[in-house]
Write a structure and sequence with these properties.
Chain lengths: 256, 270
Amino acid sequence: MLTVKGLAKRLPDGKPLLRDISFQVEKGEFVAVFGESGVGKTVLLRCVNGLTAPDSGEVVINGDGGPQRVNGKTGKELRRLRRRIGMIFQGANLVKRLSVLENVMTGRLGWINPSRSLLYGFTDQEAERALEALEKVGVKHLAFRRAETLSGGEMQRVAIARALLQEPYLLLADEPVASLDPKNASAVLDCLKPLTAQMAIIGVFHHLDIVRKYCTRAIGIRDGVVAYDGKPDVPRDVLNAVYGSEPRAWPVAAGQ
Amino acid sequence: MSVPAPGAMRLHLKKFRKYVAPALVATLLLWGASTVCRVDLGALLAGMPRGVALFGHMLPPRWEDFPALAGPALETVQIASVGTVLGAVLALLIALAAAGNLSPHRAVRELARGALTAERALPDLIIILFFVAIVGLGAFPGVMALAVCSVGMLGKLFADAFEEVDPKPLEAMAAVGATRAQIIRYAVLPQVFPSLIANTLYRFDVNIRMSIFLGVVGAGGIGFNLVMSMRLLRYQEAFAAILVILVLVVMCEQLSDALRRRVLGQEVLR
């Protein structure tokens, strides 16, 4: 489904962030990416759907059209690939002044005729699909509310519904539950988990109990390389190695 | 300084340089200018009786003129409406190029910003006279003039509004594979909608006043009736036109205020 090979990316100031990242993800997997903050987890996810261009290495998606390289693609080709890669952000990133239903329907933008979407808007059929997706994540009753009136947990579930309308085979989740309370976090994760039947999910998570409970695999990143790739029940000594033993364990102390 | 002056003395000198000297210079210049302009309170007072007399000539307004003024009044509103909308549409297109976060290229942005600044710097009168000169008298040059006069201000305000949108939803749209136009339609416009409407309505208020002035230079509307009546010394006719203009301005302001409230009220109540 996804192959990342020798991925490298420097920060704007020239310091290497990711140096040599390689891994493969198949359908059905729920992969957690972990590591110190600032280690490049977000950048890694953004390289996968081309929001950020890597300096070297390659990202290959094996979807409906056979294996296709993401990096190096631009314009229409890149949009074609992106329309089947869902992305969920920490803050949901909904359009706050649009209704929940409209927000979900924007998940179809990569599929539909651009001039129709600009002049006419969405069709009833798309609205029905959006309602189905909202039902799936348990917030159908909010469909006609404005997105800005929702709570953080509700917004995140709407964001999942939006991604579902993309019919993705790969879902990227960048700290989807980091700003939610435990109850809402579980609700969001419970929505994500069953989706692995149709797709692969790669998420950035910070709580190991979440990783253990929901994920099928964990990838730890340190110093720009994959330091751990294995069971979600990450051993203590590996954790120490990935987060660095004290005092490096604490980004604040280790920072500058 | 080799020999330090006593502290208090130095302070006085500093104050003189900073405040007193500039104030003296400014006063002199303004006094000179007002002499050249023959600012004369006496002349103003002496003219007062004539003002009262003029007002006397105006009374009563020619009531029978009112039906005939309805047409020109309506034309004034139409010129202002069409001019404002045309200007807003033009401004929107230029603003898309002038907003740093949406512009296709830095050079395009600088060009668009430059055009907007140039339009604002150009006095409105020159624009009005230009359109009267190229398309002749009537309502059409008025519409064109108002549209162009509105573009500079609206374009800048729209571009600023575009630059202030929350970029996160834009990125989310890019991630689902949306085109640039789709991102603008679904992530940018919804965010700036209230600001676009409020600014356009404000400009409409300005344009109503301007469209009355347009009649003076022959670009249609009720201003023309007023000027003709005054020139022909038909003061009662002129007064009727003035009354219609006052009512018109107040009505339009009420209308745009109500619309503004409708659009922005929703925002506040949410």
